[in-house]
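Example record for the data management plan.
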Amino acid sequence: MKKVAILLLLQILLYSACATAKDFPSKPLTLLIGFDRGGTVFTQAEALAEVLTDILNQPVTVQVRSGLGGGIAAAMVAQSQSESYIMLFTPSLSITNSPHTQPAFEVDDFRYLGAISEDQNALVTYSDAPFSSWTEFLEYAKQKDEILYASQNLTDRHFINVIAEQEGLNIRIIPVSGGAGMAPLVLGKDVDLAFSGGTHNRYVDSEQMKVIASVSVNRLSEHPDTPTLQELGYGIGSQSLRIVAVPKNIPEDHFTILANALKQAVADPRLIQVIRDVIRHPVMFMDESELHRFIRDNRSQYLELITTIENEN
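Corresponding structural encoding:
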């Protein structure tokens, strides 16, 4: 009798687990981003949410919690108890280059559904700025008492400080939230230079901005003649991917469903069109294992860079 009861209990538990996986998702999901409406992250998130809604047969809604270069949204997802119904869409820099002192989250506080595209990080200025190349910018900057610089995250802030130190420039940093915060300052000529993760492409097309240098380790796909900061002799650069992450306590079967949905979404022509033709980023899919290695490697490189900068100062 006892054996029969145990078998019945096991069957009930197995049935419940199968039913849970089969029924998931059973309610709307949230795609959280850390950058304001108007930038490329928001544009891409809207397209991704639309495609995932069709795949998962549940509404996927974009919500914005901007601040700290995407760090506020990342911290909210890392600490969320809604492990299966909230996803973080973010440039990987928001996770890999989070503050190294008293961090709000660690790399392993997330599970990574995958990467879908590669950021195109650049230093940009307004179209009729009195310089059109990095050499001309340095000549201009050395004649000015102060250069105003729009920064979106800790990484570009560290990079511009390295450049300022090496070139003897006086840089005043103006923090902004994403491309939506950067663009008005550049177009209004309120800053001399700005970091952009891709928002600049639409303004370069309309001859309102120009690209001065690539912050990425590779040359920019849309501006292949623009040199990287590494090529310019600074020994710095970054690679950032647009990724989707979830809290680490997500049930494995739910994770598999969401990861498969994301992989399917990246092959959807609607999302591809937005990535390639609207925000103009290279499509780049990575699954969890490959992306997790990328995240950990980039975190290590960032901490090494910070240590080097602190030791030199």
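Summary line stored alongside the record: The chain has two domains: 2-119+239-312, 122-214.
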